[in-house]
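Attaching the record inline, Q. Sequence:
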Amino acid sequence: MSLHKQIMGNEIMTENEIAKKQKICIQCQNCCKYITFLLPAEKINDLFDYYIKRGFTIEEIKGGPWCGYHILEIYSPCPHLTEQGCSIYNNRPKICRDYNGLTDIAMREKCMWLLLEKEKEEKGLVEEFDVGGWRN
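Structure, as predicted:
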């Protein structure tokens, strides 16, 4: 393993970890395929049928600090997404460069980076990942 390290987000990662994270991203691509929203129950109840008829899936969060909120999701792939990944990767928008699926409550369970976090936890390499107390 290379001694070279790079800071990604708030963590320092080795080249091996970066390569693994990038490979997982290319396999997953969920954040580039779905638009998600996190809404409280009172915002959903009156418009539930409206969202369903327009192709959204709706999932209620059952536990944790977001209990009672709903995740609205619609399949809407980015036009720059290819099977090989982002066709404008080097020039992608800032929101894409800064995005982290692990900190997005609506996408967290769909982000395959969660697999890396769980792997690290199992090896005892990091403390449990916690975003505002959200943990299944």
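Residues 1-10, 127-136 have pLDDT under 50 and may be disordered. The chain is about 35% helix and 20% strand.

More tomorrow.
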